[in-house]
């Protein structure tokens, strides 16, 4: 009994390494509510019971057996305390197996760990995230310490094993050692380790571990080390010492030959030598060049953050022979005047009518800034593994069309983030666009599309069909990159933008221009308020509601076309009043725009279009609104899609009747505005002498607008809500609040099959989901059910349900799910702000990334080193370049 007590005390003083490796075949993540195992015979120390290997035991964390339906209702902590205090944990676990019904949970469950897939853990008990060296308890989770695999080269691997003095490793192949065993950097001399970049640490080709602790275990004779230390004979010890001396001599000789100027410090320790290579100091010229480049990068970063365009005055605007510094050079001169010695020495003797830094060099440095900033985000995305791709509307940057790209991922703090990562040049050919889109994401940005779990595209009218080709091509290669709607765009707006009817695209553009004009002028909004008040004197509530809507971004609402139909008369009267006002109240621009927009709003083609779109999209309005609601709304909306499609199909079957009502509504509105009901002029001109007298306006708009619009919307709903997408949305029943509304009668296992390969322990999914349901079904009265995925991911015990955690992470990546915390969805808002506040000709894809991602830290040293590596010929001092708007004479 004394020995057991001593062993138990020692177990609590050991590191997590020893506890973790005691049973390498068990997955300590989640207890599965499985049938009780049969009684087991007493086991010897260190042996693994067969039941444990089969996963038939509860393994720390999650709800206890009582919660999973066990008959006993006694508190688990009380049961655990009934064990004798000196009883080892292994014996307690054995008793737990013998009496599973009354088995208590340990008070401090182990954190979850992922099992080996397809193979058992290494026989020695050492896992890949633990150091294989004797008496070393370091783990690879320590980010400040590098871990290295055993080499595959047989001769070199044999030397590693001999130096480790692990008898249990001698019978393993180099491939087995390389796969399952690691050594931390503490066992290598510093001269054997190279840092090729701030983020990459590598061993030299001839590196052999030489630094080991082979004696500390002797101070504790009762310890049970899994890493057995081999006892060496005197001949073996002499051989090892001689080998260390020979290795040290060879390294010393090689170092002297490669660089005779390096200083060497040799320290003898247990017959071995440790060498430290000092970094070659930079020359004065190299240091000044680095400081100079760092100053230039600081200026570029400042310009990006503050949204300062690179170029100042246009050359064509200046008289001939006049030199004016651009914004970059002006800031550079400001730093010189502010006391920057590096820049002053470089340029103090330079003519003032010369460019200090060429446009080419500025562009090269900006590209490096952009790549470094993007890499900060992409590194987090790769660490998270899974992600989704979202694109926004095509924008004009310096005269070229570009596609903004954002990425969604869950960071280390379990927060869903949506970050802007750059612009892609837009291609008119959809097939070429699809190829370049894929190449940029995978090759240039280094993302593995196998981990992509969602894709969404918000596009302007006319671009929808091309982006759909991109989505289709990606789905062919990566079926799990589900094509979905984006949470930032209302379903009805998205459907309207995708309708392949020219009249709808023109109507959407007109609506945007009207909204933009009124938002630019507060006086115009006041004028519109007065007009609304006059029209809705008998209905103040309706009038006040419309006034409030006019001061918001109402063009992005689910009921945009309904609002427009209600506002149309007020808008026309207001614009007519402004365009016919010859006083100095309105400037010429507003008067001109008011006249043009009033004419567009009173065109019968426009009126028919908005009325038909209002009626067609009324069938999807409630459905789309729920998709942007709470998590439970999204879940139940997925089940109502069939009803929506049924309604639209019924409309299509009876289109004659429905269109007659819609056209009558359009003619009544046109009559109220004194608009002539007629066929479009472009249609009559196209007919020339072949005009069909039987072609009426009603029939024309039925064939040109109503029928193709309904057919398109039905097909789009089927495409965007595919079987895979609906399956994923059904998995939202994992969220406890949805479970509660379903009375905890859910079946996620069937729908979660599509994510089976994304789970750490798919074999235990069914049992884990059962425990997850029981946990919330039998919660305390004062415990509220988490209402969102965000809340569920931040539960303290979510790590005890690794499969549930993995499923929730993948589900929230779907672009349809909104970012709960606005702080982590600011990338899109900053993108909109940049485009809104920057003139088209002054936009820069490089500076835009710096401006939008202004909270990312900038590694100036990395930028400088990258520039020196990519452009070594430009690091040396270069003569200044004459500017395009300067004159340099020979008499200077």
UniProtKB/TrEMBL annotation:
One of its GO terms (cellular component) is nucleus. Residues 1-71, 250-280 are annotated as: Disordered. One of its GO terms (molecular function) is zinc ion binding. Residues 16-33, 42-57, 255-269 have a biased composition (Low complexity). The keyword Lipoprotein does not apply. InterPro entries: DUF4371, IFN-induced_PKR_regulator, THAP_Znf. PROSITE patterns: ZF_THAP. Signal peptide: none annotated. Residues 127-212 form the THAP-type domain. Keywords: DNA-binding, Metal-binding, Zinc, Zinc-finger. This is THAP domain containing 12. It comes from Taeniopygia guttata.
């Amino acid at each position: 009994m004394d020995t057991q007590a001593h062993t138990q005390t020692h177990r609590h003083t050991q590191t997590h390494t020893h506890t973790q490796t005691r049973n390498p075949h068990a997955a300590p993540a989640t207890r599965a509510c499985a049938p009780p195992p049969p009684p087991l015979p007493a086991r010897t120390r260190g042996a693994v019971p067969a039941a444990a290997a089969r996963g038939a035991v509860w393994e720390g964390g999650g709800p206890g057996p009582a919660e999973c339906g066990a008959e006993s209702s006694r508190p688990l902590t009380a049961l655990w305390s009934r064990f004798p205090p000196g009883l080892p944990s292994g014996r307690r676990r054995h008793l737990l197996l013998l009496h599973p019904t009354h088995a208590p949970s340990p008070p401090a469950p182990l954190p979850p760990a992922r099992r080996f897939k397809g193979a058992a853990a290494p026989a020695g008990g050492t896992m890949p995230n633990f150091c294989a060296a004797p008496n070393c308890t370091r783990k690879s989770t320590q980010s400040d310490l590098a871990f290295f695999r055993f080499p595959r080269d047989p001769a070199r691997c044999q030397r590693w094993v001999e130096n480790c003095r692990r008898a249990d490793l001698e019978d393993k192949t180099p491939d087995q050692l390389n796969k399952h065993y690691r050594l931390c950097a503490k066992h290598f001399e510093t001269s054997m380790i190279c840092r090729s970049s701030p983020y990459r640490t590598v061993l030299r080709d001839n590196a052999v571990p030489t630094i080991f602790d082979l004696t500390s275990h002797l101070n504790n004779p009762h310890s049970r080390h899994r890493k057995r230390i081999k006892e060496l004979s005197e001949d073996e010890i002499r051989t090892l010492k001689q080998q260390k001396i020979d290795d040290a001599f060879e390294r010393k000789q090689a170092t002297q030959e490669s660089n005779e100027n390096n200083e060497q410090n040799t320290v003898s320790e247990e017959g071995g030598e440790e060498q430290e290579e000092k970094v070659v100091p930079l020359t004065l010229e190299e240091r000044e060049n680095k400081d100079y480049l760092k100053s230039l990068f600081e200026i570029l970063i400042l310009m990006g953050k503050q949204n300062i365009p690179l170029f100042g005055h246009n050359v064509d605007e200046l008289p001939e022979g006049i030199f004016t510094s651009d914004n970059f050079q002006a800031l550079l001169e400001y730093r010189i005047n502010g006391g920057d010695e590096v820049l002053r020495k470089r340029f103090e003797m330079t003519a003032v009518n010369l460019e200090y830094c060429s446009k080419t060099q500025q562009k090269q440095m900006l590209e490096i800034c952009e790549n470094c900033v993007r890499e900060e985000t992409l590194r987090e995305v790769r660490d998270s593994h899974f992600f989704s791709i979202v694109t926004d509307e095509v924008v004009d940057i310096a005269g070229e069309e570009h596609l903004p790209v954002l990425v969604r991922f869950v960071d280390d703090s379990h927060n869903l983030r949506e970050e802007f990562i750059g612009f892609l040049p837009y291609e008119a050919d959809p097939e070429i666009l699809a190829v370049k889109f894929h190449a940029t994401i995978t090759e240039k940005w280094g993302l593995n599309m196998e981990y992509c779990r969602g894709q969404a595209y918000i596009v302007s009218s006319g671009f929808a069909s091309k982006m759909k080709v991109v989505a289709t091509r990606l789905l062919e290669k990566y079926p799990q990159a589900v094509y979905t709607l984006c949470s930032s765009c209302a379903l009805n707006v998205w459907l309207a933008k995708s309708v392949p009817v020219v009249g709808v695209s023109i109507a959407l553009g007109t609506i945007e221009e009207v909204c933009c004009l009124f938002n630019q002028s507060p006086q115009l909004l006041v004028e519109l308020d007065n007009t609304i008040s006059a029209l809705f004197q008998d209905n103040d509530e309706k009038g006040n509601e419309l006034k409030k809507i006019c001061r918001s971004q109402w063009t992005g609402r689910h009921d945009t076309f309904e609002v427009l139909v209600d506002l149309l008369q007020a808008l026309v009267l207001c614009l007519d009043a402004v365009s016919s006002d010859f006083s100095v109240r309105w400037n010429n621009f507003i008067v001109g725009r008011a006249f043009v927009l009033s004419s567009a709003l009173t065109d019968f083609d426009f009126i028919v279009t908005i009325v038909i779109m209002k009626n067609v999209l009324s069938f999807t309005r409630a459905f789309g609104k729920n998709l942007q609601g709470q998590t439970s709304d999204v879940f139940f909306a997925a089940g109502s899609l069939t009803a929506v499609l049924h309604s639209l199909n019924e409309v299509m079957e009876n289109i004659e009747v429905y269109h007659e009502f819609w056209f009558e509504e359009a003619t009544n509105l046109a009559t109220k505005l004194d608009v002539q009901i007629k066929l479009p002029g472009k249609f009559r001109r196209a007919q020339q002498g072949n005009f069909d007298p039987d072609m009426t306006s009603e029939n024309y708009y039925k064939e040109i607008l109503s029928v193709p619009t309904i057919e398109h919307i039905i097909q789009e709903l089927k495409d965007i809500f595919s079987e895979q997408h609906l399956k994923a949305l059904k998995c939202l029943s994992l969220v406890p609040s949805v479970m509660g509304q379903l009375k905890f009668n859910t079946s996620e296992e069937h729908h979660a099959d599509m994510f089976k390969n994304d789970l750490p322990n798919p074999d235990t999914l069914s049992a884990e989901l059962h425990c997850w349901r029981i946990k919330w079904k039998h919660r305390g009265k004062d415990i509220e059910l988490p209402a969102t995925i965000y809340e569920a991911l931040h539960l303290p015990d979510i790590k005890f349900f690794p499969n549930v955690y993995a499923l929730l992470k993948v589900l929230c990546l779907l672009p349809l799910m909104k970012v709960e915390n606005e702080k982590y969805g600011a990338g899109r808002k900053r993108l909109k702000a940049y485009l809104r506040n920057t003139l088209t000709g002054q936009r820069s894809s490089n500076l835009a990334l710096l401006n939008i991602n202004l909270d990312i830290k900038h590694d100036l040293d990395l930028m400088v080193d990258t520039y020196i590596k990519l452009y070594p010929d430009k690091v040396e001092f270069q003569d200044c370049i004459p500017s395009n708007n300067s004159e340099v004479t020979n008499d200077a």
